[in-house]
């Protein structure tokens, strides 16, 4: 079925698609967004029930392979050391994210110049700064101005309370004289723009029933729809269609009833994340483009970057009330963020202080580490752990490597018969050294904070939240997929605004930067409409 | 005792097994997992898990068979100590049995209102009341800001 053509067609209603759609609506053209998932309802989130932890491992698991919902597509991760995580709904992965909201730092945009590794971005932090600030206001960011690890910026809301866990961990950093700073958090410390303040539910990672955590279904989408943006849910795009002159002219997608639909558009924008975007490009192949669309560089799907995570948990004598409060938003540290070659690796990592676990997760974590047995000693062992743990995550900078890839699985498909993505990923030696360093330093910090014992997980497999680099940005069409404006080198009316276009990963969560980039791309389209398709 | 074709569906056996895995605590403030009637929920979850379900079923069948060979009433008729020892003897042949069981038993147990009360939590969901959280230590922030340097 052929639908009414639109001016701008956005694929994906998550972090980047929502921000982009809200912004691009200013041009006055019709804007349509297709998303394979549904609208979520806050009353359905697990924190409304006693089974909130169990549901976090089932229908609200961050892994699409565990959830297996109709909105999900399977991901072959058998050849990857890190499991990719995502959520498919209006709001995308911001439904389940921690809302820890650091920006990439200025140095992250010029790693080649600073350290001789990776590539420099064709844009810099200063270019993105106005977009970071606008996005902070739209999402509702709480934080403390003045972090010396960043150029000065003022979050619109005061910081979230650290709680006893954060205070305890921060005291360790303070004793060591290490950098730490209350996190910028996309969670409301006060009522803001009609949204209620955080009431410390704890399970942010299964959706915020309070609506205090910024997921784009409750931040950007209501505002975008007021501007006239249309959003169709339950629509899974199969491929981008292309005219004889090489320009994109729309997509073929399956609607909520499974019917194949055709949607024409003047501009097509991909916001499907670092796995979904290359999957769609690779599946948009034809006789003229056997390697997929926008892939003359051969780099679509290559250079996949995660953030390899190390996790060290300390056990404390005092109760920490740790399950209360935003689990991933407390403070961060950039003490080991920049290159110091005496450490044996280039680039660095940040620490993210994490609050404690709920009772079921405590028992399971204790089981994995051999600390909570079954049988007679169970209750004594559990009581020693529960409410007595705090964790530091080391988020390491992954360097791009062409052998880390997203390809199309030759056999596995989704419910519509579209090839599933296959992930091939190895943690580099540089990252392994960084992870080992992070474990040592986190252990030191936890001990300084008073931990009686520590337990390390040197590489967390279930931590592939951050999907980057698979359609990277650059000026040279031979070494990049999109130009410095997010425009595909090969297809001038095709834009990409998600984490795929990252050139480097930094050592911090990417969503703030992803959304700033989406704004930046939208602004460039808005201000260059007359000559948009003339550019190389 | 009537033997159900699957051990996971044998309610009496499963109640006894869960009481061995998580027995009541000494004070009685925390009940045994079997006494809470979690068998059905755990069995249902396991039977829906294509990886762990068969593994746990096999282990549970082995435990049930061994128990019946030792006691005419099987595991439900055995003392806690004897039941524990018997389960332990089966673990070498079924190394993932207990891990698979705990994957579903712990979440079921630690969401039960009686258990939440017993561990000092309020027996309610997080939403809508939420929780109070300790404020940021102002002294720590002062120290932090006093030693600012560039990174």
Structure in words:
Chain A has 536 residues and is α/β, with parallel strands linked by helices. In chain A, 23% of the residues lie in helices and 17% in strands. Chain A has helices at 15-24, 52-55, 64-67, 111-115, 125-139, 163-176, 220-226, 273-283, 359-368, 378-385, 429-448, 511-527; strands spanning 6-11, 31-34, 76-80, 181-182, 230-232, 236-242, 248-254, 260-270, 309-315, 331-333, 349-354, 389-396, 405-413, 419-425, 453-457, 494-496. In chain A, strands 1, 2, 5, 6, 7, 8 and 16 form a 7-stranded mixed sheet that branches. Chain A has a 6-stranded antiparallel sheet with strand order 4-10-11-12-9-15, with helices on one face. A 3-stranded mixed sheet of chain A has the order 3-14-13. Chain B is mainly α and 151 residues long. Chain B has one domain (7-123). Chain B has 7 helices and no strands. The longest helix of chain B has 19 residues, at 52-70. Classes of the chains: A alpha/beta (536), B mainly alpha (151). At the A-B interface, helix 2, helix 6, strand 4, helix 9 and helix 10 of A face helix 5, helix 6 and helix 7 of B.
């Amino acid at each position: 079925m052929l639908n009414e053509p639109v001016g701008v067609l956005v694929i994906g209603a998550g972090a980047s698609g929502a921000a982009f759609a809200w912004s691009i609506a200013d041009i006055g053209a019709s804007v349509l967004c297709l998303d394979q998932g549904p609208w979520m309802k806050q009353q359905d989130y697990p924190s409304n029930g006693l089974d909130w932890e169990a549901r976090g491992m089932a229908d609200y698991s961050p892994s699409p392979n565990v959830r297996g919902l109709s909105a999900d597509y399977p991901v072959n991760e058998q050849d990857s050391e890190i499991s990719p995580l995502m959520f498919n709904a209006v709001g995308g992965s911001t439904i389940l994210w921690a809302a820890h909201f650091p920006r990439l730092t200025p140095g992250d945009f010029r790693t080649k110049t600073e350290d001789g590794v990776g590539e420099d971005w064709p844009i810099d932090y200063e270019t993105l700064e106005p977009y970071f600030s606008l996005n902070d206001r739209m999402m509702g960011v709480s934080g403390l101005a003045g972090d010396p690890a960043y150029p000065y910026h003022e979050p619109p809301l005061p910081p979230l309370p650290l709680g006893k866990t954060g205070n305890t961990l921060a005291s360790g950093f303070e004793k060591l004289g290490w950098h730490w700073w209350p996190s910028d958090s996309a969670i409301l410390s006060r009522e803001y723009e009609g949204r209620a303040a955080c009431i410390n539910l704890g399970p942010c990672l299964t959706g915020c029933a309070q609506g205090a955590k910024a997921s784009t279904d409750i931040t950007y989408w209501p505002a975008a729809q007021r501007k006239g943006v249309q959003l169709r849910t339950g629509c899974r795009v199969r491929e981008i269609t292309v005219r004889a002159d090489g320009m994109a002219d729309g997509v073929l997608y399956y609607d909520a009833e499974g019917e194949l639909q055709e949607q024409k558009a003047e501009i097509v924008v991909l916001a499907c994340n670092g796995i979904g975007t290359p999957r769609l490009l690779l599946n948009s192949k034809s006789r003229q483009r056997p390697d997929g669309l926008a892939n003359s560089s051969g780099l679509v799907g290559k250079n996949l970057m995660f953030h390899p995570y190390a996790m060290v948990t300390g056990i404390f004598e005092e109760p920490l009330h740790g399950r209360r409060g935003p689990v991933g938003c407390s403070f961060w540290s950039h003490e080991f963020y920049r290159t110091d070659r005496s450490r044996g690796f280039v680039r660095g990592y940040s620490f993210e202080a994490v609050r404690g676990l709920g009772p079921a997760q405590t028992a399971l974590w204790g089981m994995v580490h051999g600390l909570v047995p079954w049988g007679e000693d169970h209750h004594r062992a559990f009581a020693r752990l529960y409410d007595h743990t705090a964790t530091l995550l080391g988020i390491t900078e992954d360097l791009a490597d062409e052998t880390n890839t997203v390809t199309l699985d030759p056999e596995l498909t989704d419910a519509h018969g579209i090839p599933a993505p296959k992930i091939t990923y190895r943690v580099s030696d540089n990252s392994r050294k960084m992870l080992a360093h992070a474990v040592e330093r986190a252990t030191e910090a936890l001990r300084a904070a008073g931990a009686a014992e520590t337990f390390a997980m040197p590489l967390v497999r279930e931590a592939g939240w951050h999907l980057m680099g698979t359609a990277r940005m650059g000026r040279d069409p031979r070494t990049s997929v999109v130009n410095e404006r997010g425009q595909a080198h090969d297809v001038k009316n095709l834009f990409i605004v998600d984490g795929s276009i990252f050139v480097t990963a930094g050592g911090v969560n990417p969503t703030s930067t992803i959304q700033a980039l989406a704004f930046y791309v939208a602004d460039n389209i808005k201000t260059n409409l007359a000559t948009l398709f003339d550019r190389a | 005792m009537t033997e159900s074709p699957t051990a996971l569906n044998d309610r009496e056996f499963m109640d006894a097994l869960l009481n061995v895995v998580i027995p009541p605590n000494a004070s009685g403030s925390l009940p045994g997992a079997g006494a809470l009637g979690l068998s059905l929920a755990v069995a249902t979850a396991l039977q829906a898990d294509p990886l762990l379900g068969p593994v746990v079923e096999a282990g549970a069948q082995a435990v049930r068979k061994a128990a019946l060979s030792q006691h005419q009433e099987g595991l439900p008729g055995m003392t806690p100590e004897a039941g524990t020892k018997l389960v332990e003897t089966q673990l070498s042949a079924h190394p993932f049995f207990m891990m698979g069981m705990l994957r579903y038993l712990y979440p079921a147990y630690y969401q039960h209102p009686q258990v939440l009360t017993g561990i000092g939590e309020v027996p309610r969901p997080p939403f809508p009341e939420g929780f109070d959280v300790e404020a940021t230590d102002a002294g720590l922030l002062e120290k932090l800001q006093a030693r600012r340097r560039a990174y």
